[in-house]
Amino acid sequence: MSAIDPQWANAWSSTLSRIEPRLTHTPTTVVSRNVRVGKLDAELLDGELTEMLREPVSNALSLVRPGLAETYRLEIDTMIRALLFWLSVGSHRRATYAQGLQNLQYARTGRGFAQRVHWFGILSIGGHYAWARMVGAMSLAGWADAPQSSIRARLWRLVQRVERITKVAALLNFAAFLALGQYPSIIERILNLRLVHARPQLLHSVSFEFLNRQLVWHAFTEFVMFAMPLVNPARARAWVVRNVRGVMRLPVSVDPSVAELPDDTCAVCFVDARKDVSEVLEATHSAVNPYVTNCGHRYCYVCISMRMMAEADECSCLRCGSKIDRIRQYLEL
290 pairs with which residues across the strands? Predict the structure, then answer.
């Protein structure tokens, strides 16, 4: 085997000496895109949880006084968010309920981690409430319409300027979050609170089970809402009763009071009058423009026609329970 050329050996040594520093300083951890998605999903889930808890509280307050929940909606949301934060992050869990579902938690880095977490809750929840109430009070007091040289007008312009600067900073921070995936909010960036995987060995897999159930339920409700107007309730009830009676071999049940009516009395008119409590029941509902069914009983033409239109092939006689498939005009001889 031939010896290695010294010129090649020297070239390899010089090249390796230039590559090694770069290899040692190259970061080996890369923030996955799934982490960004998980952080945004956790924020949305926390908002949905607040919405879910607000509904029963609002319903309870509406029983005390109508409109009370809308008047104190900001206070209700603040108390719910503060309670959820205290039960989750504030109780040394280092993650909200939604962040726990996404396998995320705040990294315990640097000094004063517990104090920084508490300040995060105070600034994100209490600060938002105080700012919203302050701007609302200034707006209701008419500070925007105050004279330009007054202190109130200057403070109002200062507040508006601070809001614009905050919105621009939030936009820049969100762009940085999309690029680097570290701090979703400005407060987390200031306090150096980073969300990391609670269990790095657990792969972050997105489950669509809940979404699939929601889609199936939504499609089913849409189909029911579409099909309900096409269903005839009277005909469906008559069909179910007839088929159940046939399967179980039950005898045809007829109201004895209807079966014993005089021949010239319309049974439909009698039954409708009996449902009306305010009307005196009398067996004197003679059929108007009488028609005879195939079972030989007389009805008003309008009554029996409407009943046959409603129940179609499942229309049955109120007197004997026979199926009505045709009618003819009654001619008195």
Answer: 300
Hey, what are 172's tokens? 């820049």
Q: Is 235 exposed, middle or buried (0-12, 13-18, 19+ CB in 10 A)?
A: middle
Q: Is 249 helix (H, G, I), strand (E, B) or coil?
A: coil
Q: Is the pTM of this model over 0.90?
A: no
Q: How far apart are CA 248 and CA 319, in angstroms?
A: 22
- For 10, other C-beta atoms within 10 Å of its C-beta total 10
Smallest CA-to-CA distance from 61 within 85, 77, 45 is with 77
Query: Across 30-144, where does the E strand assignment appear?
Result: 104-106
Q: Which two tokens stand for residue 248?
A: 């179980």
Determine which helix (DSSP H) or strand (DSSP E) holds 299, and give its type and residue range: strand 298-300
User: Is 143:156 a contact under the CB 8 Å cutoff?
Assistant: yes
Distance CA 189, CA 310 (A): 69
DSSP assignments along 31-48, one per residue: --HHHHHHHHHHHHHHHH
The helix/strand/coil state of 319 is coil
> Would you state the structure tokens that stand for residue 46, as one six-digit string?
């926390």
Query: Which residues make beta-bridge pairs with 328?
Result: 292
pLDDT digits (tens, 9 = 90+) for 64-108: 888 888 888 999 999 999 998 988 887 777 888 888 888 888 888
Contacts of 147 (CB under 8 A, 6+ apart): 153
| Bridge partner list, 104 | 197
From the list 258, 234, 226, 242, the residue with the least C-alpha distance to 309 is 234
Listed as own residue / partner, the contacts of 144-153 with beta carbons closer than 8 Å and 24 or more positions apart are: none
Which tens digit of pLDDT belongs to each residue from 154-200? 999 999 999 999 999 999 999 998 888 888 899 999 998 888 887 76
**Are the beta carbons of 173 and 179 closer than 8 angstroms?**
no
Pairing of β 290-293 and β 298-300: antiparallel
C-alpha–C-alpha distance, residues 178 and 41, integer Å:
14
